[in-house]
Structures are given as C-alpha cells and as structure tokens.
Amino acid sequence: MKRQSSVRLAAIILMMLSFLLGGCSDLFGKSSPEPSASETSTDAPSSEPSVAPDSSGSVIAYLSAWERLDYAGMYALLSPFVKNDLTEEQFVKRYQTIYDALKVSNLVVTALPTEEDGAVTGAGTAVKGFAYRVSMDTEEGPISFDNQGRVRKTVQDDGITNWLIDWNPSYIFPGMEEGDTVRIEKTPAIRGEIVDRNGNPLAVNVEAAQLGIVPGKLGDSADTVKASMAKKLGMTVQEIDRKLGASWVKPNLFVPIAVVVDNAAREELIALPGVSAQKVTVRRYPLGEVAAHLIGYIGEINADELKTREAQGYKTGDLIGKAGLELMLETQLRGTSGKAVVIADRAGVQKSVIAGQDARNGTTYKLTIDAALQQAIYEEVKADEASVAAIQPKTGEVLALLSSPSYDPNAFVQGVSKEQYRQWNEDPRHPFLNRFSRTYAPGSSFKVITAAIGLDSGALDPNEAKEIAGLTWKKDSTWGKYYVKRVHELNPVDLSKALTYSDNIYFAQTALAIGKKQFVAGAARFGIGEPLPLTYPFSASQLAGGGGAPSGDIQLADSGYGQGQVEMTTLHVAFAFSALVNGGNIAYPQLSEADSAFAGKLWKEQAMSTDTAELIKADLVKAVASPEGVGHGAYIAGASIAGKTGTAELKASKGTKGQENGWFVGFDADDPQLLISMMIENVQGRGGSRYVAAKVKRVFEH
C-alpha cells in the first residue's frame, strides 16, 4: 500500500510537470520489444484510466536528474520493462563508475526538438522517441553528443497511466551495449631528441632490452643466477634482492632488473633460468661523458619532483629530465601523451572512440654544437679539472661546451650501481660539478677588457711607455703591505709589451687611471653583471661580490688584471673576445635552432670601438707569435693565432701558495671561424697557463 501511494504521488508530480512544461511532445517515434502484460495498456471498454497528457514531463524530469548526477532519481523514472533486468544499485554504479573514472564536470543535458510523434505498437502499447544533447568536461577532454531515447506509456498498479523512460546502455554513450565497458587509453608521446649542428645524435631514443626475473622460475638456481647477473650488470646481489623483494612482486610476475643495450650481453643473460627480456625504448647518449654536463640525462621522477609537477600530468614511474638540457627543455622534449575515451566490448576489443586527442611528440632540438669538436676538446682535457667553451665568434653560435672530469649519463638510464655512484660522488675532483656553467676569476684574460675600456675612455695611450721598476708595485703607503706582483721585469712597458708579457702592474695602473665609474660602465658594455641570454642557466659574471662595483683602489687595481672579485664563465670570456673580430660588436649567443631568430643580431653593440678591436687583435697575434710571449705555446706556423693567457691565483693571503687556474683564449685572426676559451684548474707546477695554451693549439691543429 505504501508503494502504491508513492507511485501515485510520483505520477501526480509528473502530470503537473507535464502540464506546466507542455508543448514538448514533438518526439521521434521508435519501435521497442514487446512488453510483458504487466507493462501494457490495453483498450479498456468501460473505465478509461487517468493518463498523463504527454511524455514531456518524464523526459524533462529524467534529463534534469541526469544533469544533477542524481542517478537514483533517474532510476525512479525508468519503466518496469527496464527495472525487471536492472536493479537501482546496478544502474547507479554504472554511471558512477564511468563518470568518476572520467572525472566528469560541467555536465549539461538538454532536450532537443523532434519531428515526429510517437508510434503505437503491440496491443495498445505506446512508445515515443525523444532526443537529447549531452556535453561534459572530462580529464581526457570535452565530450558532447546528440542521442535519442524513448519513453513507454505504462499503467501503474493503481490504474494511473504514465510515460517512463525505456533506458538502455546506449543512453550513456551512443553505440554502447550491454556488457560494454568504457576505458581510458593513453598513448605516450615520443620524447624529442637532441642532435648536433650536423644532425649527429646527442640524446636519442633507442630500442633496448629490459632484463628481468620471474621469481617462480628461478628454481634451485636462484643464487647462481643472481650472482651471474650482478657481475655482468655491474650490480650487487643485494640490489637484485631488493628489487625482487618489492611488495608487489609475485612468483609469476616479471620483475625488471636492468636495461641492457648490448645484444651480446642480453643473449648471455636470458639464457639463465628465470631470466627474460622485454623490448623497451630507452634514452641513449652517444657522446657519453663527453657531453654529459651539457645534455644531462633523464630518470624516474622522484617524490619531490612529482609534488611540483603532478598538476602537469606527471605520475609515479614517469621519466623526467634530471640535469642539463634534458632538464632545461623538459616541457618541450616531453611532448603530450595521447589519450582517448574508448568503448570496448565484452572481449575488450575497441568499438569506438568517444573523445580524446592524439599524442603530440616532443620537439627535437638541433643544437649549434659540433660533436666532433666537442670530442676533440674533451680528449685534451679529460684528465684535468677544466671548463671549455668554443664559439663561432662572428655568428654567435656556441660550438662546444664541456666540463671535466665527467660521468657517463647512460649509466643513470640503465640503472647506475651504488658502487659506481659512490665512486663518482666521492671523487675529490667532483665529476658531477658543471664547471662551464660556473664563474671563475678570469685572471689575465680579462686584461683585454681592461685595455679596451682604457683605450675607448682615453685613459690609456697604447704607445706610451710606462716606467715600471721591479716585480712589485703599490700605489702609495695607504696600501700598507699590499702590492701587485708581476712575473717579468720590463721597463718601460707599452700596451703591446704588457699583453705579450702579461704585465699585472701595467693593467692595475690602467684600471686606476680609468677610475671606478668608467671601469664599471665599460665592463657593462661587455655584458658583465648580467646573465648570458641563453636557455642554459649560466652563472652571471661580476666585477665585485653581489654584482656591485670594486670597493676601493686595491680592489679596482686587482680587477684590472682579472683578480679581486672579478668572475666570468669561460663562455662569457669567449663572447667578450669575439668583439675583436666583429669590429667591436658581440654577436647574439645561439645554442640551438630555436635561437635562430637572433641570427645576425647583436647582443652588445660597440662593446669596444672598431679601432680598439683592431689594435688589440694585432697585439694578441704578436703575443702568440713572439717567442718571449706567454702565449707562444699556441703558436702554429702558417696561422695567425691571436690569444691571451691568464693565471688566476686563489690563495688566502699575499705571499702564500695557493691554487692556480690557467686560462687561454684564442682564435685565428685571419680566419676567425673558431674561438676557444679554456680554463684548467690546478696548473701550478705544470707550466701554468702555458699548459693550457698547448692544449688549445692541438685543438686548432685538429
């Protein structure tokens, strides 16, 4: 009795809605299976039951409940014909499961006009068609579709006749049938590659073997197999046991152990009991340690990275750039995975795609780097602690950037062993340290900048022979025990000799003659105090700590020969020297094709005047050609190598021994296609900057 009252109340409400919303009976007729006797309305000869005027009220109420995600309310409006085979729990669960998986939001469900009225079928049974439109936002993209349904005229137990929804799975999504499922399929984007200026690979995707163990197939050979794998893969048995001991591991599951690119090693290992391989695509760095700091490497995302990148679609297990350009260009290289909302049949076979988007592969970056030059330079400095930059000085293209000592980034992709990582991490030479991105005291290489500022400000006469006696000098008694020291005793000294013999006192006096204000302004014309305009994060150069100006005469004098608190990267020094071949201008730095918009443009216009550039360039040619010149180690017969040495002393106080970093910056003045800026740490006892000049010479010869 209680149920009849509820049904009667629902029918009355629907009749009222129908009356208020009337005029929507333009419904498209659609045939239906024969109803059971309890669902049909027969031709009663005497007492005509109370009938709702049309079906629009039921349709509007049903679509309204759907839009509110009121699944129970939707079920209440279904015909008994449907309810016989579908419980409310099943109905609600079906919608909730699908909508929750898709993370549906902004759902809008509206009725559409139809052109035909309903058709009567069977023994007085009436069904009518209706049309509707659904739109929603999902995590996989927007979904919208037009669809059709039908309502059935049904006589309730109490004699009330009403129109109720004849639901089937196609109402959820067109084409969906009983037993079908909705699933989300994702297609990973292919990571963009990195190549050099000639298309040679620097970071590429290659097919490799993911070696693993199925624990249940090891049998009695477990210890032998693990020991053999550990030895071949450079791992420990404990590392293998740790992977096999993960909480998700089951006897019949494949447990990944390591990635192997070497086919011979793969064949040898998969012959072991319980060991098998799966094909995977992995990142490969053909230059290995030669370009490790520049290119970097990728690895599995960690908890901290996931916390900051989860909103960008990253999830546990994803690979992400960890260092170098792989990190700097992560967003562009990664691309966007494809995703699709798919209807599949009982067998899991895809029937249709409801929504989604194709994968957008990552961008491939073509660098201005020359892999052959990078390799040649590395061979010269791999035993040293060094920073090297090479550029095409006229165009601004960066041809080589490297730091030594280095590490093999492929080890991180394949799974670096704890022992190997420990060796690298505890190496006192710090192979993980990226030296080319750091600043160092440029030493005497900075004298070129001091000379240019002095000449253009009028504070320096290149032909004036300065009277300088002895190996030490100080301005006056206010300097106390502080003094400037030079290596060669020359008297008198002009600019050409000062550059040839690298006279510290001459350039200390020049800096003081220029004055702090003009010295700072002149240095700024070379970009000192600002970062290089490149994607890669180089430390900004400076004249003094905190980016300020030299604090007094002593610091200003020391700055004149590249000591004090002056610091520059090897790349910035290279660009400063490039003004010598560009009439005083500095070309805009370029590291990849993405920077081609700056080709032909200037980063710094008239860092020095054209006349000054020509004068200093000629003096640097003499400095290398002269047998007495400190840069003579870079001399090549038949070439016109212009260059400047530098030795930066790092020590606690005057008169003590400290670390010496040697510099040489050089180019062929007659054919300036290559300019190299090289800094090597700890050159004391190895010939100082001459040790560096000889290495640059061999690169030019190569």
UniProtKB/TrEMBL annotation:
Keywords: Membrane. InterPro entries: Beta-lactam/transpept, Beta-lactam/transpept-like, MecA_N, NTF2-like_dom_sf, PBP_dimer, PBP_dimer_sf, PCN-bd_Tpept. It is found in: Membrane. The keyword Membrane applies. GO terms for biological process: cell wall organization; response to antibiotic. Pfam families: MecA_N, PBP_dimer, Transpeptidase. GO terms for cellular component: plasma membrane. GO terms for molecular function: penicillin binding; peptidoglycan L,D-transpeptidase activity. Residues 31-42 have a biased composition (Low complexity). Residues 187-351 form the Penicillin-binding protein dimerisation domain. Residues 43-55 have a biased composition (Polar residues). Its main location: membrane. Residues 61-180 form the NTF2-like N-terminal transpeptidase domain. It comes from the Bacteria. Residues 387-700 form the Penicillin-binding protein transpeptidase domain. Residues 31-55 are annotated as: Disordered. PROSITE patterns: PROKAR_LIPOPROTEIN. Belongs to the transpeptidase family. This is Penicillin-binding protein. It comes from Cohnella phaseoli.
